[in-house]
């Protein structure tokens, strides 16, 4: 399973990537904005996108809307990891097509729980985490 981690903060990308690797997912590609993410999506092979909201060039919400408007990317699960925590922002992200939403700061356990809710059943494992 290949993950695309999108965040303009290198340290945040590292945190998410480390969480994924701890959960057994080693195939992770990192990019620093939505524009780079869409270019990576066009190459193919991305199974899950984990994106920040606020980034230069193309923000996460625009990325999600662009993905959902393209048949090739419409069904790829998207988790938004962001500091945006007001109810209206969460609703806007869900309406744009985000599958789950993680508010920073977060624990690895919270990240795992949110991830497990969007992964196909066979990827969830059977031990509950």
Can you tag this structure with a few keywords?
single chain, 129 residues, alpha/beta, Rossmann fold, five-stranded parallel beta sheet, 6 helices, 44% helix
Query: What share of residues is helical?
Result: 40-55%
Helix/strand order, N-terminal first: EHEHEHEHEHH
Helix count from the secondary structure assignment: 6
Assign the CATH topology: Rossmann fold
Cα Rg = 13 Å
Number of structural units classed as domains: 1
How does CATH name the architecture? 3-Layer(aba) Sandwich
Amino-to-carboxy terminus distance: 17 Å
Structural class by helix and strand composition: alpha/beta
Average the pLDDT over all residues and give the rounded result: 92
Major sheet summary line:
5 strands, parallel
Describe the structure.
- With 129 residues, the chain is an alpha/beta fold.
- It has a single domain, classed as Rossmann fold (3-Layer(aba) Sandwich).
- The protein has helices at 10-22, 34-43, 60-68, 87-96, 108-118, 121-124, and strands spanning 3-6, 28-31, 48-51, 78-82, 100-103.
- Strands 2-1-3-4-5 form a 5-stranded parallel sheet, with helices on both faces.
- The longest helix has 13 residues, at 10-22.
- The mean pLDDT is 92.
